[in-house]
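This part of the workshop introduces the protein records we will be handling. Each record describes a single protein and holds just a pair of labelled lines. Instead of coordinates, the fold is spelled out as a row of discrete tokens. To make this concrete, we reproduce a full record directly below:
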Amino acid sequence: MIPRSLGGKKIAVLVESEFIPEEIEAYQKRFSQLKATVHLMSRLWNQPSVRFFSDEDTGNTPRTIEVNIDFQNVDVNEYAAVIMSANYTSVRLRYFEPQPGQPVSAEQVRTSPAVQFFAKAMANPKIVKGALCHGLWILTPMPELLKDRKVICHEVVLADILNAGGVYVPSSSGVVVDGDLVTGRSRHEVEPFIDAITEQIQQISTATNLFSTRRTNTSVSRVKVAS
């Protein structure tokens, strides 16, 4: 059952240019209805804010969003979920700078700040990680993080995900949940994608609270026995 409220939890959404407006708006609207706070964040290149432009292949004028949170300046562990947005935002965020005077090496692909940020989120099972459409591209520089994880993605990036060790799972809903990792096929599945992330946040929160209660009760019982 999808919870009615996320109780003020924070949701991080990584964005860049070529974002899909309807997707970002869905996060802002739906999570706000669930009493959660959405933080749009990106790499700001030492600027107070950066304006990003949407993807438009219909001839319409691109839309913009102003982002003033640099993910390099936040503690990922304060977030209940970290979402890599769809389209080409992930490939743009994989950008890294070679060391001055040194040639590009294969190992340097792992040094992208956004890749490092998402890897930190992957290391914490209490954070729900979400990747929609092309979003799993953020993990391909660290294939060990995708190895044996059950996922779904857009067919355009499927070869890359398989080569990184991901396990593709067809889904009639277009969404696949593998524990703390939630993936969606495309922007058209953004609503069930949000619902799945919400449910996982609630499950993790409930399990954490239950563990804390049991631990507290056990400690109290030991104190009583000792006294």
